[in-house]
Amino acid sequence: MRIRLAFAAATLMSLSACQMPGEAGEEPTASLDIPEVEDGDLNEATMVDITRELSSDAFEGRMPGTVGEEKTVALLIERFKAAGLQPGNGDSWVQKVPLVEITGRDYAPLTIAGDGVDLSFDFAEDWVGVTYREEAQSSLEDSELVFVGYGINAPEREWNDYEGVDMAGKTAVILVNDPDWESDGLEGTFNGRAMTYYGRWTYKFEEAGEQGAAAALVVHDTEPASYGWNVVESSWSGPQAYPQYGANAPPRTQMNGWVQNQVARQIVEAAGQDFDALVAAAKQPGFKPVPLGITASTAFSNDVRKFESQNVIAMLEGAERPDEYVMHTAHWDHLGRCTPADDGDDICNGAVDNATGTAALVALGEAHAKAGAPDRSLVFLAVTAEESGLLGAHYYAQNPVFPLDQTVGGINMDAFLVAGPSNDVTVVGPGKSQLDQFLDAALKADGRVATPNPEPQAGYYYRSDHFAFAKLGVPMLYIDGGEDLKDGGRTAGKAIADEYRANRYHGPKDEFDENWDWSGVMQDLQLYYRLGRMMANSTSWPNWNEGDEFRAVRDEACAAEGGC
User: Which of 90, 367, 523, 525 has the smallest count of CB within 10 Å of its CB?
Assistant: First the structure.
């Protein structure tokens, strides 16, 4: 099911607010029940051992549907049992997630043709492309290129980059991020510098399909994308996992892909257009799509394999209100085998991303079990196929084991950058929900402060598993480690983050290091423990803040009989 942000905006004012139990008809106040929580007994060895094992070459990069998945699921079940937790799906530790794996091969060049135009671009070096269709052969033949700006159709913001054009059989050329990403502040049609969901490639490909396009090509640009071409090439080559859509599949293009910025510039200028002028025009209200008068062609073969992957679910049943749930999420998967490094290493081990977060689920469950059951139930959900588009999280959210209107809120953990202790934490998406009040209390107890995400244009809130829950109304916190390090301050913190992104993120060198200093990770883990315990022992039902894009969905769920 696809939740459009337009729906949330259109219905925002018509729905009643989430209520505290027993307070029907009253708006929740700013004062929440936030109990004090003692430190948890967290085991660093649990974090180290599980991270080391999950990111070893024996797990082959933890690609869903491979032996790496089998080993990962077996290890998690073993460790959740040893931690004193119970199966989270009735008598089962897993939830089956139906997926299809499509591996493109034998790529023809991307050729661009027209009056006096004859260009050819090589796969991987210049462009990448995949299909979401379960077909043995993909072919794009003489498809007219149309520059559609940022590829956004947002009626509630009076913005439609497709206005007046019939995209049937055509290829959309789309800019990454959204129109006001270069703003200095957070005010604007699309939240200024802070990316909205309209800026994510997932949305852009969905919308191109809805518009009937034959193909969609996003123009890569490192700053607004927040990652380099090496990440695109590594992530979009090799096996790709998607949901098994079945008979009710949404509209899908024949091909979705990316082109290098300089390739897009060459294509647009060959069509007789000024690339920079088109980009500038796309940022302005009233932009209209621009047919380029030239065509794109390519073809490739696909190996298609249907399989079931698995979410792993453990829980600690609440002592007082066991049918109210606090969620902890992390994805266990990574990219498997990917573009080799210079030394020939082709296993994307995913030590930081996200063996660390997966290990944290076990370590937190272990500590909560030692402390005894809190009032509400705690759920520890290790999801599959995050790297393929949050597929495991979306499947759970659409097929919840524990009702979403009885899920109080949650915490997502995606990649602990092992950088030593810090004076702060980085909050991704601050100001969105009343969970910020729990975070403020937990940080005060830890003697630290919250720092807003320094790169709001990257849209990180829409890029990890908590987003699947947020779209359906469940308030979720997403917190990264701080950059104000106790040893070296913000300069050192930024240097470590930049080095990881440039050299290890989504590449074969995201490997376990026996020399890592885990003290900062354990500091962050203590914060997550405190947050989960606070929510579990609270009587409050935190909501999204008034005006947030997810508020209306939660209000509707809570207004229903038996909800929230």
Answer: 90
